[in-house]
Design brief:
By secondary structure, this protein is mainly β. Helices cover about 15% and strands about 35% of the residues. The protein contains 2 helices and 15 strands. The chain has helices spanning about 1-30, 80-85; strands at about 55-60, 65, 75-80, 100-105, 125, 130, 135, 140, 150-155, 170-175, 185-195, 200-210, 215-225, 235-245, 255-270. A 5-stranded mixed β-sheet has the order 3-9-10-7-8. A hairpin with a 2-residue loop joins strand 5 and strand 6. The chain starts with a helix and ends in a 10-residue tail after the last strand. About 20% of the residues are buried.
């Protein structure tokens, strides 16, 4: 009887010890996993998940956040780091890095199709078809957009009936502007120079006003661009302000975003062909 009692006592001690170790192991795993998982909204893409030039998800396929590997339409995403490294400053310059894409400069159409004569962007062809609709936050735009306030450029090639209103047989280019971040106060300054004495300065600053509730972000641009064609030049002054507000809770179940952009461009455009001989 005593031997049985000692056996049961030893078994109980061993079981209690194993349960304690299992509890401690689970606690350590929970601490190593970090804070609770935050569920992201399906209507926005977080660029913090991008790794260098490799984007993870996009809205360009269906207006819902989808992993690039699951998007049915041929899609290319250009991250902010890529745009900065190749010194792309406008949507007219990104075409050389897009697949099956070319620009129609309109030399054979006379001055009526010369994109240099006004602020309109160049005619883009994708897969040999006229298209290349440019949208800013899924609002159609007919102007060449500068990259000083962009965090992503997504190209969707081919027809996509899901993108009603901005889709076409050639494809579309979607621009995502900077968003005010609810955590952190940071900024950056970019300066560009070239052999034609062009200068470009861009300022980006994010302000955390109320943690997880209210933030403001400003982007400023000052540029004087020259080319080998004299006396052509372009002077641009732009300002972009955006705000993010969680009115009801810190989790952002309801989020309000406001954007405002001002731009002034003074341009002397030389025609890319010789004048006619009279």
């Amino acid at each position: 009887m005593k031997r049985l009692t000692w056996t049961l006592l030893i078994a109980m001690v061993v079981a209690a010890s194993m349960a304690l170790q299992a509890q401690q192991a689970a606690e350590e795993l929970r601490k190593a996993a970090g804070p609770d998982v935050v569920e992201l909204t399906p209507f926005s893409v977080s660029t913090t998940l991008d790794r260098g030039y490799q984007a993870q998800s996009t809205l360009g396929g269906s207006r819902l956040r989808t992993d690039l590997k699951d998007v049915a339409a041929p899609t290319s995403a250009f991250t902010q780091e890529f745009l900065r490294d190749v010194a792309v400053t406008s949507t007219d310059e990104i075409g050389r890095y897009m697949v099956s894409t070319e620009y129609d400069f309109g030399e054979d159409g006379g001055t009526g199709q010369n994109f240099l004569k006004d602020n309109s962007t160049r005619t883009m062809r994708m897969r040999g078809l006229t298209g290349g609709t440019i949208s800013v936050n899924f609002f159609k735009s007919n102007f060449a957009t500068d990259t000083f306030n962009l965090e992503r450029i997504d190209q969707s090639r081919g027809p996509n009936s899901v993108l009603f209103g901005i889709g076409n047989p050639g494809g579309a280019v979607h621009l995502s502007t900077n968003r005010a971040l609810l955590r952190g106060r940071n900024g950056a300054v970019d300066q560009h120079y070239d052999s034609f004495n062009s200068q470009r300065v861009a300022l980006d600053q994010n302000y955390e006003l109320v943690r997880d509730r209210l933030a403001l972000r400003t982007d400023l641009l000052w540029t004087d661009m020259n080319t080998f064609r004299k006396p052509s030049l372009e002077r641009k002054r732009s300002a972009f302000v955006t705000g993010t507000w969680n009115p009801f809770d810190r989790e952002g179940r309801t989020q309000i975003r406001l954007n405002y952009e001002y731009a002034r461009t003074d341009r002397i455009a030389a025609r890319p062909w010789a004048p006619p001989v009279l």
